[in-house]
């Protein structure tokens, strides 16, 4: 069957925008980065994950979530029958803040248009925000992740109605077993939410084992956020 011309055009436009973003000089972070970390995954995904910012490993490799937090994210996706090829993964900030510090308000303001353009092009039906920065930016509300995790909310992004689903950031769950269990529980609702948004039933696959929490080396800790 021939590919949908609209899908092909969306992919081409997203790829062109990624190339354009690679030269971004909108904020101070451009001076210290190795490369822009635009995003990775399926450009036609119904589910978009939005994290905080690239870490050491992300800055080196050019892909989001490739450190220990990324390995946990992969395990969580596996637990609900998904892979990175089924979703799209991006961050609020496309360049690594020095020392993995929190993004500054002016840096978020300078970079947020890139994320909003990604959302406009991908047209996800469900956006899972990972942690405080993504949740506050996309919801437009000040509530912290501890208060709102696991509770979907409707908002309008890119001129479209979309469901936000706030989750703890995987990096935080690496250190706290109770938070990891909560994150697993919240993840289990994703197939149900996708089914509601797409009308396509999804089978929930139980986590086969607890996600291992191996001790982190100093280099690995640099790539958590």
- What's the CATH architecture? 3-Layer(aba) Sandwich
What is the third-level CATH name, the topology? Uracil-DNA Glycosylase, subunit E
Tally of discrete structural domains = 1
Portion of residues within helices:
40-55%
From the alpha-carbon coordinates, what is the Rg to the nearest angstrom?
17 Å
Strand content: 5-15%
Q: What sequence of helices (H) and strands (E) makes up the elements?
A: HEEHHEHEHHEEHHHH
Counted beta strands: 6
How does the overall form come out from the CA principal axes? globular
**First-residue to last-residue Cα separation:** 41 Å
Question: Mean pLDDT across all residues, rounded?
Answer: 88
Question: What is the level 1 CATH name?
Answer: Alpha Beta
The parts where pLDDT drops under 50 for at least 5 residues are 204-225
What is the count of helical runs? 10
Strands of the widest sheet, in order across it, are 1-3-2-4-6-5
Name given to the CATH homologous superfamily:
Uracil-DNA glycosylase-like domain
How does the helix and strand content classify structurally? alpha/beta
In this structure, how is the largest beta sheet organized?
6 strands, mixed
